[in-house]
Write a structure and sequence with these properties.
The structure is a single chain. 60% of the residues lie in helices and 14% in strands. With 251 residues, it is α+β, with helices and mostly antiparallel strands. The chain folds into three domains: 99 residues, Serine Threonine Protein Phosphatase 5, Tetratricopeptide repeat (Alpha Horseshoe); 74 residues; 60 residues, SH3 type barrels (Roll), CATH 2.30.30. The strands form two sheets. A five-stranded antiparallel sheet has the order 6-5-4-1-7. A two-stranded antiparallel ribbon has the order 2-3. The longest helix is centred in the N-terminal third of the chain and has 33 residues. It starts with a helix and ends with a strand. 29% of the residues are buried.
Length: 251
């Protein structure tokens, strides 16, 4: 038992040291950014990220740093990463839109059915964690009103608590679903940013495939399949093709 407690203590101390180290690196990186030392700021932010820590604020600052040194593809990549963790952040969306203005490829998006678009808009109101917290709140509220329904002897109160509990059940299931979908967006590695200055998209996963079209750095694509070191990608207009894995970076 003593050995178990010792192990737990060592793990706790290790995480404490890492947290303190990241706090110090965060302050150093922010100071470097303010001083205009953007390359050094990026290097320091990357150390924080390499420790296993990630947050919308970290990725947002990395995106800003890359934008300042005119590395647009990297800026877009980290703004997209930040947006995954904080989908309703207006600052991130604004800076991403600003960076995308410098992306060469302007690709039309396939129109989304208005109900689907409406659901996505609601889902993007909060992050996965916030939706999870809301689902727990709605669940406990449901239990409260179900309890009132079961123990109440007044018909009016019983009827009211029944309908309110139904409402909270719907809210609980909806928020749980949105939390799951937001988590899937983060965990599902199916979006990427083109990193090469320009890359020729092929009709098949080999160099002998027909040249279909050319993409430039900063363009967002969806990864559909992989064969060896080749990736099949799709654009927002539905166009598909193959490129080398080294030409893109997963968001």
């Amino acid at each position: 038992m003593k050995r178990i407690f010792t192990t737990i203590l060592i793990i706790t101390q290790t995480f404490g040291v890492i947290a303190q180290s990241n706090d110090a690196l965060w302050e150093t990186a922010n100071k470097m950014y303010i001083e205009g030392k953007f390359d050094q700021a990026i290097e320091t932010y990357q150390k924080i990220n390499n420790s296993g820590y990630e947050s919308a604020e970290l990725y947002y600052n990395m995106g800003n740093s890359y934008y300042k040194i005119n590395k647009i593809a990297k800026a877009v990549l980290y703004y997209e990463k930040a947006l995954q963790l904080s989908p309703n952040d207006e600052d991130i969306r604004f800076n991403l839109e600003l960076a995308n203005r410098y992306v060469v490829d302007k690709i039309e998006k396939i129109p989304i059915f208005f109900i689907t678009n409406w659901i996505i808009s609601i889902r993007n109101l909060f992050s996965a964690n916030k939706w999870a917290v809301l689902s727990l709140m709605f669940f406990f509220a449901t239990l409260v009103f179900i309890t009132i329904y079961l123990i109440s002897r007044k018909y009016g109160l019983k009827k009211l608590s029944f309908w309110i509990s139904l409402l909270f059940i719907v809210l609980f299931l909806s928020s749980l679903y949105f939390s799951y979908k937001q988590k899937q967006v983060i965990l599902k590695d199916d979006t990427a940013i083109i990193m090469s200055p320009s890359v020729t998209i092929k009709s098949s996963p080999d160099t002998s495939g027909n040249d279909l079209f050319v993409l430039h750095e900063g363009t967002k694509v969806w990864v559909l399949d992989q064969i060896s070191d080749w990736r099949e990608i799709k654009l927002s207009d539905g166009t598909k093709g193959w490129l080398k894995a080294t030409d893109l970076e997963i968001i």
